[in-house]
Amino acid sequence: MGPIITAVAAMGALGLGLSVVLGVASKVFYVYVDPRITQVADVLPGANCGGCGYAGCSDCAAAMVEGKAPVNACKAGGASVAQAVAGVLGVSAVAAEREVARIFCKGDNTRAERKFQYMGINDCRAAMLVSSGDKSCGYGCLGLGTCVANCPFGALSMGEDGLPRVDDEKCTACGTCVKVCPRHIPRVIPVSQKAASLCSSHDVGKLVKEICEAGCLGCGLCKKACPEKAIEVVKFLSVVDTAKCNGCGKCFEKCPTGIMQSLVFTVV
Amino acid sequence: MSPGSFSGGICLSISDASANKPFERIIPSGVVTIPLRQDLGGICNAKVKKGDEVKVGQVIGESAGPEGASIHATVSGKVADVIKAYPHFSGGFVPAVLIESDGKDEWVGLEGSADPMAAIQQAGIIDFDIKPVPLAAKLNEAKSRRANALIVNAMDIEPVLSSRSRLLSERVQEVACGIDTIKSIIGAASVYVAVDKGASQAMSAVGSACGGAATVVGLNPKYPQAVDLLLVKSILGKEVPCTEAYCVADIGALVLSVETVAAVGRAMADKKPVVDRFITITGANGTGAKNVQVRIGTTIKEVLGHCGISVEGMGKVIAGGPMMGTAIANTETPVTKEVLGIFVQHEKEITGFDSAVCIKCGLCIEVCPVGLMPFLISGFSEKGVYAKAAANDIFTCFECGCCVYVCPVMIPMVHWIKFGKAQIMAQRSSE
Predict the structure, then answer these.
(1) B385 is in which domain, residue-wise?
(2) Residue in chain A nearest B411 by alpha carbon
């Protein structure tokens, strides 16, 4: 019995001593952490997509609590998360407008020319290392699906025509696809936008005509047709001013290549 | 000193059809396209405008800085156009000058600066090697790091190419003059000429011309012996510890390709700038293999036509050699200072890549000449773990392609490594 009592007593004394040290240390080195940070972090989606501009969800939560970021900073979470964060922080949430990604290229496998056959690894960024990509157009979608592979919410899929599709329900407008695309084809736009020229090419019309059936020629017919003067041609590419556009559709009829289109979203 | 070797690498049994064929001169007849960036030194400023009359050797692009290389007209005639965005074969766009040849081939000489460094910059000389660095920058680096051994690299970079050995045997006087100039610039104590052991003609030529001034070192043509790191290892017995931070100049060596040295000789003795390239052209299966002296700006199509290589059924046209070259998208691409050779693959000879999984056989580690683990680095870049790829010395890899050559499941490791490097560089520049 003797050794057992000694062992239990020794371990007990050691435990007691160390717990006192820990207790003192926790008082001396105490750092105040706002409990709301954890609460806010809990209501955030936790995908660490980086769409808000912070390193991850916990960083964003800290910024929200400190007032550096608005309560609707989490793009991925949308209105419901903004409400929840506002609830934790005791402020009223101003719902940010719902945004989704759209692919600004219509040059699919049948309509856009390719200047050579690419045989390398399946990543658009790698394809860019070989003569700036296999599409004849220096601005168009390469169609190897880097955006699809990197979407943290599984909102993108590759269509059979070689262009990605966006699932509006799943898309949270986090902007990862915009960042990974070497040609910046996906763009995050508000659902209130009614029309857009779905092309990214700044090439002159003559060249576009040669290499792609679905490219903006920069002809300016849409600009002339627009009663609201909402369209500008910037470096041979039509750009719609969302503030002025009312979606009347006059430009759709005039566009010779049909890339000036009405935008249809399945979410509001 | 007995030349050593290096671990790894492979002995390629590719036919050397172009060997011992003398250089044939190609002077383009129509329009030449001269990009205003042909090295890693930056874009040159256009000195001519549309409609100007130019002569061969006239400066059309002036280097932006003192360590650049100017670009010269390579035919006499009229400037047809100056375009802002010409597609560069490795990606991106550069400005370019189009000159319509008048067929007269009239020359203007260099101004002839007394200072050899200024003369080198005016003559537009770059190091005609894997990394096309302007020679002025390379010499300044060698001087600042007190490199005292000059190694003239007459080893051909890839087995199918033979232009370097050939150039040494044909133009040994120019090389000797170039060696003298460079030796006095950097104050080199010793000069070595690295030659392929099999190229006996080149070896005897350099032996008699340079006499005691240079040590001729015959090396086994094991691929990739011609890369500067491995040459230094074989000849000086020294190794660069970490190639991301150090270069061969840090261990006291300046390695220059024989074409560079010959260009220096030509600039000093004949006052002629760089207007020609001395390259090997090889068709599929060695058909039409030739060594050519071709004016910069000639389209690859015209060069292939001269060699009787038809474009029909052609699979890939590669600038460089089969191991390290870059496939080009368009045969209208001009020959520039960066092109080390042209290799054509037939459609039937091309093998695609599988999306196979690494079986961890370790063959790539065995052949890697710089002792890396290619499967690991490429795997890290594939999975997007770039920090680990960098920690495993991704930047030490000079993309020789030995690993892919031996890989039994054909994983495109070099492409993944290039991809990883590009991602890391992009991350670093955004930070």
Answers:
(1) 363-430
(2) A121
